[in-house]
Design brief:
Layout lengths: L2 H12 L10 H12 L4 E5 L5 E7 L2 E7 L6 H17 L18 E3 L7 E7 L4 E2 L7 H18 L31 H17 L9 E4 L8 E3 L7 E4 L6 E4 H12 L9 H13 L4 H28 L4 H6 L4 H9 L3 H9 L4
Antiparallel strand pairs: 1-2, 2-3, 3-5, 4-5, 6-8, 7-10, 8-9
Helix pairs in contact: 4-7, 5-8, 6-7, 6-8, 8-10, 8-11
Length: 353
Amino acid sequence: MRVDDFLDEVAAETGIAGSEEPIQVSVVSDVLGRDYGLSGGLIPIATEKDDTFRLEAGGRPYLVKVSPSSEAADIVDLQTSALLHLEEVAPELPVQRLVRTRAGGVAVELETDQAPSRTLRVFDFVPGTLLADAQPSAAQLGDAGAMLAKIGSTLAEFDHPREERLLLWDLAHFHRLRRLLDSVRDPGHRSLAERVMDEFEQEVVPVLGTLRRQVVHGDYSPYNVVVEPGASPFITGVIDFGDTVRTTTVFDIAVMTANQIGRDEHDPWAAAAAFIRGYRAERALDDTELATLRIAGLARLALRALVAEWRAEQSPDRQEYVMSHASHDWIHLAVAASTDRRDVARLLSAHTC
């Protein structure tokens, strides 16, 4: 396959290739009533690819998600199966729960004019504050790291026929996505992303085959972690398993790392280090994994900025949403990348502050 073709293929399998007509609310309402016995007001929620709604029914909130027609049913089943595995093996973890249909199922295939069909699922709505809207302490970031480690340990023995899916957000493919650079208009931003890609290819790609791999959450970001500030436990919910995939374990850690680096220009890696310490307190990382954390975090942040630019160009109708999650990424990336790599390595490998 030509490198130029890879971006198109991975975007299509990720379910974000191009635009799609929103599902009719009446269709969703009919399925909820028929298959779940639920009725109530549906409030749309902006997300990356699914048609998502908050439902108020019988005095209880729910989350309703309808997969895009571009996302195959077996990929949705991968996500669903991972959630069911966590529910069965580690029910104490605050992972979002699936609501069963009247017949005991966990999903409904919708009959629409689109092909392939779309899948509707209903989840418990997790109340609380998103970590992205909180001001967590170092200890609370450590709690977030420990929670990801627990989820990772529980998913370590999970497998699924479609776990090796192609996913745009999987850093295992980062070095194959140089075509994204063509959508970057700012020369400084493009140069910065090229430097990160070069370093990733030089330092991470040669050791990919030696790094631990497993099925992971895939998008453990501040937007998918629900917290209760000032309370214990701090982490009250983990949501959105839409990017579940088998990949290198370090790349799962890199998601939250990317969201923490560069925000404090005086100490750009401190928050990420607190998160990683929490993870390591629950689950060990070997020397090779530790050595890749710095560039993996930078790569994930660069990838988000690059994909935002590309998607804004490809889908102008979703420009506001995709750019809202990446508005400061270039600034944070520049700050984090300018920090002396030896200082970062020492900070990330330390067990204490």
